[in-house]
Design brief:
585 residues, alpha/beta, Rossmann fold, 3 domains, magnesium, thiamine pyrophosphate
């Protein structure tokens, strides 16, 4: 069977360079101006193409695939406002270091800004949130100007190599003139094999780190989003067995150890309620902060480290370092395992009670989190107890933003669970699409845990014929944006329900009927405990379980939890004399 190509050379070249650079998956949104790209990419034997109509959903779907593959995935659209619908996913990819490749068709320059339909100023449209913009020159079937194709080839190659080596989004804008649908069964161009543009590694001088580590009795390791890096067991052992080290993780850190602090806010929130908050924060304040991974969810740990800054902050990441706490000292551009392999033999364990003192507090938070369950009624918080008791091993879980991910971080992550969330820009707009994209890429059991506003906002994500049978959605419907009842603000004001909380009476059953998704609901903790095990056992078709929780009770239960911890835990114990923490040097 002959392969089908567009007869436009640039469309052929883009497809061949995508294959050269390892792009195997392309998400296409229907359109006319992108017909040359669609014809070539959809018929390429080395490319798996997907058709998703809604461009915003398509881009987040591709983003979920990049999370799974840790490799570039392309998303292709027609000209005009279609391209702008990619922007939310582009910004998420930019701040999450994901190699999303945006390929947009465009009209020729002479048709822009003259009143022609479906035209906007597409070159450099993502300027503030893109690693590279390749603005190609117009090409046609009859073009005999070899310099145009040569220029376009170099630009596409630079864009794709940038996405690969710098791990972020790039944009390729390709103007096409009519006719758009002419085809050929053979390549009309020779696409050269181009050199890799991998950047040279930087010098790594860890002398300041080694000195700071060895002379500090209070070291805090804070791990953000970790999608793909496997941390060597030797590194975990080093960090977990040093008495001067506390390791704080979030569920999206995707590493675990019995000694790691997985419930950051369960410690910091009660401290904020104590009369001697500053004294307790000073006891927790690290002399040295080591961070790796991506962005952090907890606002409380950000506030704490900005107000009680370490003397030194070292960040380990092959690509970038965010000065989140306004005290960054050094960025080591390498992987965590490689870095510690290099410095491990030079590190010493000073005498310290830093871990011992705070670990006693941590263990108490775990104990009283368990006992708090018997103190509360049905609520969002009560649901999460059941969720973590029933999650199967090896399940991949995507958490939507706002309340969903914050509740999850109050419970223990386990190595067997892979957890994801769109924390680059922390928006609610593409959580469902991203989770589905990941599930399609992995073909492994994947569950999305989402709130009602996030789910209904992205409901076009279900307009998708690729959803695996093992994909599941847990929808917490508390009839509004529950996060706003937790945040400061007067909940009794007349405008609050409409303009902040956005109360509603929607439910998901009709959507599930339309998209052939099996629907279950639960309106009590008894029903949740009965339905969740059955929900996870069924894998014959996509499923959604809708948990209806009480809108006016959820925030009270959560905020009372922190009061409960403050009342039952002796935080003052960490202020007892700690002579062993004196500087060994």
């Amino acid at each position: 069977m002959n392969q089908i190509y567009s007869s436009i050379p640039t469309a052929q070249m883009i497809a061949e360079l995508c294959v050269q650079n390892g792009i195997e998956h392309v998400v296409i949104s229907p359109g006319s101006r992108n017909a040359p790209l669609t014809i070539t990419l959809a018929n390429h034997p080395k490319i798996k193409a997907y058709s998703i109509v809604d461009e915003r959903c398509a881009a987040f779907f591709a983003l979920g695939m990049t999370q799974r593959f840790n490799a570039p995935v392309a998303v292709v659209c027609t000209s005009g406002s279609a391209l702008l619908n990619y922007y939310p996913a582009v910004s998420e990819a930019f701040y999450s270091n994901l190699p999303l490749v945006v390929i947009s068709a465009d009209r020729p320059p002479h048709l822009i800004d003259i009143g022609d339909g479906q035209t906007i100023r597409q070159p450099h449209v993502f300027t503030n949130h893109i690693l590279y913009s390749a603005n190609l020159k117009g090409d046609s079937h009859q073009s005999e100007d070899a310099s145009i194709l040569e220029f376009n080839t170099q630009e596409v190659h630079k864009a794709l190599q940038t996405a690969i080596w710098n791990q972020g989004p790039v944009h390729i804008n390709a103007p096409f003139d009519e006719p758009l649908y002419h085809k050929t069964d053979s390549l009309s161009i020779d696409v050269p094999t181009l050199d890799s543009l991998k950047p040279e590694p930087s010098e790594l001088d860890a002398s300041d780190f080694i000195h700071s580590w060895n002379s500090s009795a209070k070291k805090l390791v804070l791990v953000g989003v970790n999608l793909d890096e496997e941390i060597d067991e030797e590194v975990l052992k080093l960090l977990s067995e040093d008495p001067s080290v506390i390791v704080m993780t979030e569920i999206t850190s995707n590493i675990s150890h019995p000694n790691f602090f997985t419930n950051i806010d369960s410690i910091l929130a009660p401290i904020e309620l104590e009369e001697n908050t500053a004294e307790l924060c000073e006891a927790l304040q690290p002399e040295v902060l080591i961070t790796f991974g991506g962005l952090i969810v907890s606002k409380k740990v950000k506030k704490f480290l900005r107000e009680f800054q370490p003397q030194k902050h070292f960040h380990i990441d092959p690509r970038e370092a965010n000065d989140t706490f306004f005290c960054l000292s050094k960025h080591f551009e390498t992987t965590v395992s490689s870095f510690f392999e290099r410095v491990n033999s030079s590190l010493r364990k000073p005498d310290s009670t830093y871990f011992e003192s705070w670990n006693a507090v941590r263990l108490k938070t775990l104990e009283y989190r368990t006992s708090y369950k018997s103190e509360i009624g049905f609520s969002d918080f009560a649901f999460y107890y059941s969720l973590f008791e029933n999650l199967p091993q090896d399940e991949t879980v995507h958490f939507a933003n706002s309340s969903s991910i914050r509740y999850a971080n109050l419970f223990d992550s386990r190595r067997e669970i892979k957890a994801f969330a769109n924390r680059g820009t922390s928006g609610i707009d593409g959580s469902t699409s991203t989770a589905i994209g990941y599930a399609v890429a992995s073909q492994e059991p994947t569950t999305l845990v989402t709130g009602d506003l996030s789910f209904f906002y992205d409901s076009n994500a279900l307009w998708n014929k690729y959803i695996p049978k093992s994909f599941k959605i847990i929808l917490l419907n508390n009839a509004g944006g529950g996060i706003f009842r937790i945040l400061p603000g007067n909940k009794e004001e007349e405008y609050f329900a409409n303009y902040f909380e956005t109360t509603h009476e929607l439910h998901a059953k009709h959507l599930c009927d339309m998209y052939q998704i099996q629907y279950t609901e639960a309106r009590s903790l008894k029903q949740v405990d009965k339905e969740l095990p059955l929900f996870f056992e069924r894998n014959g078709c996509p499923q959604l379980i809708e948990i209806f929780t009480p809108r006016l009770e959820n925030d009270k239960v959560l905020l009372t939890y922190f009061d409960y911890l403050k009342t039952h835990i002796d935080f003052q114990s960490v202020l007892k004399p700690r002579s062993a923490e004196s500087n060994p040097n």
